[in-house]
Amino acid sequence: MLLTLLTDFGTTDYFVGAMKGAILSVNPDARIVDITHDVPAHDVQAGAWTLLAACQSFPEGSVHVGVVDPGVGSSRRPILIVQRERFFVGPDNGLFSYLVDPEANPRVFHLTNERHFRHPVSATFHGRDIFAPVAAWLTRGVAPEEFGERVADYTRLDTLTPAKREEGVVEATIIHIDRFGNCVTNITRRDLSEKAEARGARLFVNKQEIHSFRRFFAEEWVAAASQSADELFAVWGSAGFLEIASFRRSAADLLKAKRGQTITLMVD
Asked: At 26, which CATH number?
């Protein structure tokens, strides 16, 4: 069974290695995959987006550990969420919001059975002492019910659905900016169909209009190498969201755009 790790720990300190040690102490045969440990510090929303983009690539039965946990040691609960034969272990702070579908009847468990924890439990490192060993025991076949009582409520971030949809106008948001400066929006094909895109669509960001839609980043460069490197365009990203990009340039820098800001999509 695969076990993935996502944290904001970075790789300079001992934290990631210690988590892997806790996992291997329970299950020496665990197959551990690092999604990333470079989530911006304490940025739960960024971690939630990255989990959404990455976890769809893993098979059923995978165990996903997420630790972006500014509330560690407080009253926030450690939880396990089971949905469609996938397991999510981490803090109850919204980190798994974009992965969990309430209509899929997810099962949520408050992790309280200390038998499956590493001891002593540090008040500042639940990633090593609670989440990692619980995930490892899951890979060994321990049933979710063994870790604690089932609960009905869990913390959720605001939905990724655009805030406003009207005839021909969608008020959307930049939800992520990747390391290349591409601005990922919360616009999906539900908001902009292929037919509507073909009729004509325009994006407005910080008073700049973007009307070019491409299939891949270098599309126009293949046809005309003299194209301006500063031209902004829209492209459907691999996670299924519309992105704003510029070939070999940071669209975020060109637009002076930031995550969380509102953008407008207009369809002719």
From this structure: 3.40.50.10790
Integer Cα distance of 161 and 178 in angstroms: 20
Flag the least confident range among 8-22, 31-45, 153-167, 172-186. Answer: 153-167
The CATH number linked to 246 is 2.40.30.90
Structurally, the chain folds into a number of domains equal to 2
Q: What is the pLDDT of residues 38-58, one digit of tens each?
A: 999 999 999 999 999 999 999
107 lies in some domain: yes
Question: Quick one: 39 and 117 in the same domain?
Answer: yes
263: left (phi over 0), alpha (psi -120 to 50) or beta: beta
State whether 117 and 173 are in the same domain.
no
Query: Given the structure tokens 């601005």, which residue do they identify?
Result: 183
- Report DSSP state, residue 157: P
Answer whether residue 104 is part of any domain. Answer: yes
Kindly state whether residue 158 falls inside one of the protein's structural domains: no
pTM of the model: 0.89
